[in-house]
Request: fold
Amino acid sequence: MDCFDNFDPIEGNVPLYPFYGLFDVAWKARELLAGLSKQDILWIEHEVDWQIEKARDLFAQAAERNQNRLDDDSDDFDEEISEIEAMSFAVDAGLGTTNSDEPGHCPIRCAAVLALMFVANCINTLNCPEEDLGTADDGPIGARLIPAANDAFNAALALGLALKYERHIEITNDLEIEMDERLADFNKDRARRAAMRKHGPTNQAKAFVTAEWARHRSAYNGNKSAFARDYVRRIHNEYHVSITEKQMREVWLKDTPPASKPDGLPANG
Reply:
């Protein structure tokens, strides 16, 4: 992944916002890696990348061999397995180095480094200049927050994998509760982001219309109907938001002086 070019896995700062759990993940992962140098962690990073790539190759080969068993319209194996799934498969299949003297021999450390790799990806995305983000259907917010949130979530999953290996048992009930709470918070945050994506252009257009009405109300002699006729087309062209003149006049501008009434006149005037 080359995640640590701009983020120090040992001392790099981890922000508390917008993903408060990210700091906890990094802190615990670093605790599991205590005593290792940065060079050791970079070596493990390359080992983890290799294990994930190898696991995905083996998984793809197995999928191809078993394709004849699937229905013609089945797409069960069309999607590449995630890094977490690949890491788990690599450990179960013993794909890692067999040299016990190498830092990448320990699956706990490999999973902890994978967690930090996701932490680094998340932070790098949050700090990425807007011009380097590329484009997304969800706009700049989607291009930054959605992949960053995915990395934050995967970091928590990778840490859970490391803790599972550390204890040689399933994650304890306390951690499961904590993860459930984090998943609940993540889902709430995801729902909030979905609402932002859905209503963002409309909210921006409404804010623009309100500001334009405040700026040009005198020029229209307080006539909202005339203003709406002009701005309905402009909003559609510039913000790709469809709204009727009545909606703009009676909903978006409802808290402003009424239609066809010059400034200062009462509504019944």
